[in-house]
Amino acid sequence: MIIWLDPQDPFPPVERALGPASDAPGLLAASRDLSPQRLLLAYRQGIFPWYSEGQPVLWWSTDPRMVLAPAALRVSATLRKTLRRVLRDPAWEIRVDADFLAVMRACAMTPRDGQFGTWITDEIVAAYGALHRNGLAHSVETWYEGQRVGGLYGVALGRMFYGESMFAHRTDASKIALAALCAFLVGHGVTLIDCQQETDHLASLGASPIARADFLAHVRAAAAQPEIADWRFDKSVLNHWAWGNAA
Questions:
Q1: Predicted structure pTM score
Q2: Nearest to 12 by CA among 1, 21, 24, 23
Q3: In this structure, are 70 and 164 located in the same domain?
Q4: Structural domain for 8, as ranges
């Protein structure tokens, strides 16, 4: 039985989420409320929203949980060559928080194999936009010749980063943004990025599943640490990957 949450209701224990034998493994609760305050409560408890237009807000806590250690990002030989080219060519830039809402909308509008429509609704854009204005959500953007060609966004609490979505309008543009983000996070002591659900694409980048209990223990410790104060960085962070051993 899925619990319906009124605006003042706390989330139920994540152990009450639907199990692997159900039609919706990890589904925990539903609500009409998608306030920034509700989002922050969710992330601190290892819960995330995922739903489609016309549905109530559906709250999930998957077990296992897909995560990426920033230091373990899988940088292929081909991607490493691309990163070196990005570092050499002034036409390439990495911008942080240049236009957070535009990145969200680009993620929403980019077609994906096997996916029809988008879960990034206007309601989602408004809620995460509020977090961004409060310094708790960020975009990392790949620009080429003055045009935004890829990027990602997510939520940052303490020393925890929760990845939400990526897009690319040029080959490897989202991977370039992810490599920049991972290098930045390594330098600030962030050891896990929440990827939420298992996909082959995430696995190809080095993400792997861990038990929900282990994920929650990490979140409790990492999200309680001081926030990263300065989210300004440029493509020079890619030096972290450009001349290492190819994966």
A1: 0.94
A2: 1
A3: yes
A4: 3-62
